[in-house]
Amino acid sequence: MLSYRHAFHAGNHADVLxxxxxxxxxxxxxxxxxxxxxxxxxAGAGCYTLDSGYAAQNAEYRSGIALLWERxxxxxxxxDYLSLVKRFNPDGQMKLYPGSPLLALQLLRxxxxxxxxxxxxxxxxxxxxxxxxxxxxxxLQQSDGFAALKAMLPPPPRRALVLIDPPYEDKQDYxxxxxxxxxxxxxxxxxMYAIWYPQLQRAESRQLPEQLKKLxxxxxxxxxxxxxxxxxxxxxxxxSGMFILNPPWTLHxxxxxxxxxxxxxxxxxxxGGYVLEHExxxxx
Length: 284
Fold this sequence. Notes:
- The structure is a single chain.
- By secondary structure, the chain is an alpha/beta fold.
- About 35% of the residues lie in helices and about 20% in strands.
- Helix 1 packs parallel to helix 4 (about 100-105).
């Protein structure tokens, strides 16, 4: 399915959760001099205009990044993430929102590499434009990220963050995530894998975290943020989650401060909530 365009949702509460955690993971990898790869299976267009076009239609960013823009009480991880977003808005006005790949590019060092995959032809073309001048460090392909991931693992430096965040419009994506991770762990058991998923009423969404817990990773962490109660009609996204396989040992403590803050600030009419759980030495 090629109908999904992330621009409609740029900067919403799910992006805030996903990208703040992405920054934490990349900061951790960059603590060592040894190079690493950033692999993004569903890279999107890379950057989104908030005050016009698709993003302005639903203006989902107003209940996401906009609620953090002027605050002076941000926990350190959120302040770090927001500073990276503000680099794209030097006049202080909230006009551009960087997606996962452009946020990652800000944190890569000369020795690090990026591998980006995007199947949608229009978004893939925009992604190429957004990364013009960076092709020595970045490889982009218009292809199915699930299929392309096999050829990427294990990466030469044996250190990598793999971000998997398909649109889940096709319910087959839920099973494709599990299958890709099971195969990925066989090829690259020590890799760090970050999986984003929407909180929906559909069974596949509710079951995905439990399926991910059963994968043969050494450890896992699950952080989910809900911003409102599920709709009575059963439709619509009421939150989202990030599931990390082989997370940094520091991540749980960082999220203990971050998650209640996000639930309080991004929750609608006091209905925000969160889940934060992890397990070390999981099944092997």
